[in-house]
Structures are given as C-alpha cells and as structure tokens.
Amino acid sequence: MRRALDALYDGCAWLAAVFMIGVLVMVLLSVLGRQFNFHVPGTDAYAGYSMAAAGFLALAHTLKRNEHIRVTLVLGKLTGGARRGMELWSLSAAVLLSGLFAWFSLRLVMQSHEFNDISTGNDATPLWIPQLGMALGTLVLLIAFVDEWVLELRGQRQHIGGPETRHE
Questions:
Q1: N or C terminus: fewer CB in 10 A for the chain?
Q2: Which contacts of 31-34 are long-range, i.e. CB under 8 A and separated by 24 or more positions?
Q3: Does residue 28 surpass a pLDDT of 50?
C-alpha cells in the first residue's frame, strides 16, 4: 500500500512538472509570436490552465515531503501526548477541509461538463477539461492528508522539525 501511495504522489508531481513545461511552451509561443508576427490563440488561457494544474497536482507530493509551510509556534512548545493530540487535531481539520475542497472541485467539474460550460476567451475550451487538474490535485491531497492522519494515529509519522522548532 505504501508503494502505491508513494507512486501516486510521485506520479502527480511528474504530471505537475509536465504542466510546468506546458506553461513554458505557452509563454515561449506568445513571446515568439510577438517577435515574428504570428499569433497562436489561447496561449494566455492555456498557460493559466497549466499553471493551475501544476500547482494543484504538486500539493500532495509537497505535503508528503514536509515542504508545506506550517506555523509551529504552538506545536513547537508542546511535547508528548499534548503534541500528538494537537497533531491529530490539525490533521483532522486538514482532512475535513481538503475533503470539502476535493468534493466541491469534483462537483465543479461535473457541473461544468453537464452545463457544457465554455471558456469566454478566444480558446473556447470546455472548462471541465482544465478543471480536472484542480479536482485530481485536491483529491490526491485528501488522500495524502488521510495517509498522514493514519500514520500519526499509528505513531509512525515522521516529524521533521526545522530550525524554528529546535531549541538550541
């Protein structure tokens, strides 16, 4: 199970990297178009779609590598059961919030598809297509938070404290 979850997080990170390359390609097309007098319609929109997909798809991988910004002002002062309780409370809130975010993101994709919602730009893209990146990213983030919650509950979660949590 651990290998499958890690593969999921890594796969989303690789997909996020592909979308970052997509941003680069769209920006280069736009710059080259201005330099050489040609226009590729929708480059701005597709750069935005790619940037959003890259951001959302990278969330779970970033969480699992302990790279999310955490405010540890209170947590750093706690030890033992109090710290574990606060970690579980924080992770429970994160599971709830990421679950709501995933639910409403998936619902947005379904509604955009159902209503045939189209971009108002000159690209006229069905909006459910770029919204898939956000929905997938939030769903995998939910899975990652549940994973962290279970690991904390079992006492298997690794706490990596940065310099702000060390008292030297």
A1: C
A2: none
A3: yes
